[in-house]
Q: What sequence folds into this?
């Protein structure tokens, strides 16, 4: 707000797509800025610009930062990475010229500016040189949960957010070990993400959200989605595992004699730091935990899960009890 | 929008605290609602109400949903859990009476309505019975990153969001295995969270944000925080590990002869599903990966990290090479 020789840089989160999900502050900052900058692909259409369109004026200076490449193939001697680095340097220099001239620059960012996304490359090159403020925004993670109408995380649950570009085995391990999850950057990665959900035993729970809050929005069960139809602006969601109290379907595994199962897990010699994702996933998915009290006590509490700790010397009774529970349909 | 016999339920995300971080849609929905509901502790002050205060009118019907207990001690025969369940049932019944009378009810939610938090308990009891819409909001996660001015996740990084109420060992394992992290629900859990960051080898990177975007905001290095001074409305942040390109400090471990280290990790017999959090953390923190190409290829790529795959039969050359790198200060 103070007068200074240089202008001020704003990273402005625009939310997931619906212009009414911009914050009041984002609207204010855009209205007061001299320069509006946004990234776009080579075709020149900027989703960020279209979200903010109602607030752009004829006297705004617009800086379109157009990516030189859209896939990983390029003629640049430094390859894809080198081409991008040059592009970011050049884009930052264009914004710096405005800031040096005392102009306020608002860089538009879909979702939240510091959560994946292009603004970060400008931030790293400019924020230490100019007064800078980041306006946080609603992420596609929150938007997807809202459009599904399903709780994302509750109580002691852990949420993992991960890009679909990771290797399939890596995705499977992360998905097995977490409670809730959102997988970003679908599109061409969809088949791999679906495979990872299947390997992690979580395909049935997985939900799909395409273009949340935007035109052409689609939601549904991920298992039903045609892989050929998936755009980049879509996410996979594993919602909260805490059972719905009323209304929703009862979890299939509880008290259903057709589905009982005993899973024997090794917890390793030294606690969670050496616990594998597969064991962690099995512990989280269980209805009942049966074991030596000292070990059972270390497993985080989970609503609806029953714990049966016992002495170290009653292994056969414990096994019998676990099999009895499984016969009654528990897992 | 259509006329219906019953009213409409809205879960309204208010953002992290600064009223200007409410979305345009949240402001609209509050203005148009007949009933404004909000949770509060027994002292009656509602942070949610205070964020929305400028938009409340004298003719709004206000429903304060006052928690009967604030700690885990209670006289209720069902204990803490039973007391809460009764409270949620009674609160939902109060809102249902308004909805049955055709009134629009807006339930105010700090941050995002489906991301931890109280609105979810109303949603689970009412959303299947009445037309319901959730307005997503800016989370304290995005607000904390914005106030720190540090990127949260970039490229192929994984973000883990977890509650400080988990056991310390569990926290340490989760923090070791992730790239970025935000730990919610600090306050009395702070000492444990600090201990877990230390055990995970990540205390030096950890940042602290108290009351992000609110009055009394405080940010800094987590290691410097006095545990006695930490309120519930604070979070711990492990920002993006992708090194700042310019401006920020260079990572201490690269090319610093005083700090080189060889870490020998076991990747297990079957890929990431059996990979321990400790190994995963060491792989992510390395400057150089040295090993059999087949295994090295499975580890996700990370900007700035160098990979040295080799044949399966050159173990001693490989070891020598790794020691040589460590002598030059690399990890």
A:
């Amino acid at each position: 707000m103070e007068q200074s020789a240089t202008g001020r840089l704003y990273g402005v989160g625009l939310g997931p797509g619906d212009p009414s999900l911009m914050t009041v502050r984002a609207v204010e900052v855009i209205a007061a800025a001299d320069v509006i900058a946004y990234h776009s692909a080579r075709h020149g259409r900027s989703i960020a610009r279209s979200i903010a369109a109602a607030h752009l004026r004829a006297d705004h200076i617009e800086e379109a930062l157009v990516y030189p490449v859209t896939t990983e193939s390029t003629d640049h001697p430094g390859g894809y990475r080198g081409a991008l680095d040059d592009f970011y340097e050049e884009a930052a220099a264009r914004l710096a010229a405005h800031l040096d001239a005392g102009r306020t620059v608002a860089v538009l960012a879909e979702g939240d500016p510091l959560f994946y996304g292009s603004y970060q490359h400008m931030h790293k090159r400019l924020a230490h040189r100019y007064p800078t403020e980041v306006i946080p925004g609603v992420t596609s993670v929150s938007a997807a949960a809202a459009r599904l109408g399903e709780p994302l995380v509750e109580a002691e649950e852990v949420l993992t957010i991960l890009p679909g570009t990771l290797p399939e085995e890596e995705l499977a391990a992360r998905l097995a070990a977490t409670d809730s999850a959102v997988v970003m950057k679908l599109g061409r990665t969809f088949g791999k993400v679906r495979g990872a959900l299947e390997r992690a035993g979580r395909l049935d729970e997985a939900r799909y959200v395409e273009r949340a809050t935007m035109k052409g929005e689609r939601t549904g069960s991920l298992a039903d989605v045609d892989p050929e139809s998936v755009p980049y602006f879509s996410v996979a969601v594993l919602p909260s595992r805490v059972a719905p109290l009323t209304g929703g379907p009862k979890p299939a595994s509880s008290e259903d004699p057709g589905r009982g199962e005993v899973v024997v897990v090794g917890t390793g010699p030294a606690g969670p730091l050496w616990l594998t994702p597969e064991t962690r996933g099995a512990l989280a998915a269980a209805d009942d935990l049966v074991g030596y009290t000292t070990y059972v006590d270390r497993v985080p509490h989970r609503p609806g899960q029953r714990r049966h700790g016992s002495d170290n010397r009653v292994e056969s009774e414990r096994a019998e009890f676990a099999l009895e529970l499984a016969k009654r349909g528990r897992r």
Observations:
- The first helix of chain B runs from residue 24 to 32.
- Chain B touches chain A through 83 residues (CB under 8 Å).
